[in-house]
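Q: How do we represent a protein-ligand complex in a form that can be generated token by token?
A: Start from the inputs.
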Amino acid sequence: MQICYNCSANTVLNNPEWSKKAALLKKAGINTMWLFGYFYGHWDTSPEDVARAKKVLEEDGFEVNAANVPFGHGGNALDPDDPNFKSDIGEGWRERWTKDGLVKVNTTCPNDKAISDTRDALLIFKQLGMKKAFFDDDLRFGKWSPETQGCFCPDCLEKFRNIYGNFSVDDIDRDEALTAAWKRFQCENLTNFVQKISVDGIRHGVMLMNNVDERHGVDVKMLKERVPGIFFRVGEGCFSDGAFDTEKGKLCLTRSVSNHMYRIGDNTDTWSETTVFPKNALSPANLVEKMKIELHIGLKNIYLMSGTIFLDDVYFNAIADALPLLQEIDAQTTSPNYSLGDPIW
Ligand SMILES: [Zn+2]
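Then emit the structure tokens for the protein with zinc ion bound:
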């Protein structure tokens, strides 16, 4: 079992007692840290600070990689208490449009500027010696919902019309052939984005939103075939006690994970979505319960996450206390043969 977590370079560099924090993370079994990162056209911290924080974390004994947010979320999905939070996408980037012509919804159109800026950022990560970079959520064209979505901006619509011919957006999810072609087009667009930003020597991780599939432009098989070395986090939802403490919440979590693991196939490098969001929304006890469920499902790698908020010590203490039991569950669990089931919305 591996456990990892992510944070800003500022968290490492601005805390005079960071070494004590690092020791606590180690006690909780964490061996890899993912540093923010390039967020939809902006650096969370300067590359120089990322380099300094990387050095500190490596001296603490962690493997260090990069965590990026590829597309804008439309609003603040990283820390609602941060008044300085930057939700705007980069200059020259384009908002995703919905079928109804709405813009500034979550995620972004993968236009040429988004591709070249993101690739440039990855080249800098390569210079900093990073060998892996996670696209942590939002690599998708849609919100958490069962309808077929995608980017309906004028450019994307024109490109699709050139392939398919004339159509009415209202017929998506009504006309079978049109819906299949539209989903394929969105999946090609998203996969194309990942292929074009890819840099030799950096492996990409992709966060698969809870229940995400072709309806949101994500085709795991296509990504695996076209992006060498790609690996995944499996979306679970249940970031709060309110969502986690229900039978439906837990069923949705396990169904989503097993559907994703079925599609991924080889799950040796597949990671959990062990997220607390917003601040303290999932209690330390429930976080540990969630980890137990993940290990029982057959996940071997735990990825802790909490937006850009750094978890309080109480969480790491709870994980450290539970670590022997978690390791025992891990040792006794073999990955089953996963099957596809209807997602639970
Ligand atoms: Zn578009």
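The chain has a mean pLDDT of 96. Residues 109, 151, 153, 155-156 surround zinc ion (CB under 6 Å).
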